[in-house]
């Protein structure tokens, strides 16, 4: 019989792994509250490792749309990207919050989190189809990733999309111990690794999404400027000036 869930502690992932399906479902959807860093509802937000995972989901969703996934597949991809790091609930705070380089033992502990993610999601029927993708988000194209160490080309495209989105967000986001890198610099780094650790297909989807996003941003900025100009032209003229 599992011990009562303490949602304020990150070892809840281990509890979820051995809980019954009903208990795990309740824990994920209700008991794992914001105090544990997770809120699982239709609008999912995960703030493990002191950073929101919502940007990873936004990137993954854009990449899914770029490749032509239908609405349901895009929805499942987004939800998977939001939950891909839930296994970090099973990693010590001392490891997650360490500002410097991890020791070998600490990195070994960190590498368990994709396995935790997969096992947790697999226990909940509503999330079971996300389990394999979430568990594979640190696999590399050359098979030197973790936790299984299998070539990512053998995995669903969704896994490769989440992996690239996660790496891009991690390198561009600011951390307490370093500034975020410029997006173009990160893309250059990923380009150098394309074909070895990074899936070229997923990388191209990322670039397509970012290009579309940049275009949309420029259009919105131009429309805003035109609207301001229209307001200026429509303003009454002061004859006393």
Structure description:
It is built from eleven helices and two strands, in the order ααββααααααααα. The protein has 241 residues and is mostly helical. The protein has a two-stranded antiparallel ribbon with strand order 1-2.
* C-alpha Rg (nearest Å): 21 Å
Strand percentage: under 5%
Number of strands: 2
Name the strands of the widest sheet in spatial order: 1-2
The end-to-end span amounts to 83 Å
What global shape is seen?
globular
Order of helices and strands: HHEEHHHHHHHHH
Q: What would CATH call the class?
A: Mainly Alpha
Q: From the 3D coordinates, which CATH architecture would you assign?
A: Orthogonal Bundle
Name the quaternary structure: single chain
Biggest sheet record: 2 strands, antiparallel
In CATH, the topology is named Hypothetical protein af1432
User: What is the residue-mean pLDDT, rounded to a whole number?
Assistant: 74
Name the helicity range: 55-70%
Classified in CATH, the superfamily is Hypothetical protein af1432
Number of domains: 1
Which structural class matches the secondary elements? mainly alpha
**What's the tally of helices?**
11
Properties at a glance:
241 residues; mainly alpha; Hypothetical protein af1432; two-stranded antiparallel ribbon; 11 helices; globular; disordered N terminus
Offer a quick outline of the entry.
The protein has helices spanning 12-18, 21-31, 54-67, 71-83, 93-96, 104-110, 113-122, 131-135, 157-172, 183-193, 200-234, and strands spanning 38-39, 45-46. It has 241 residues and is mainly α.
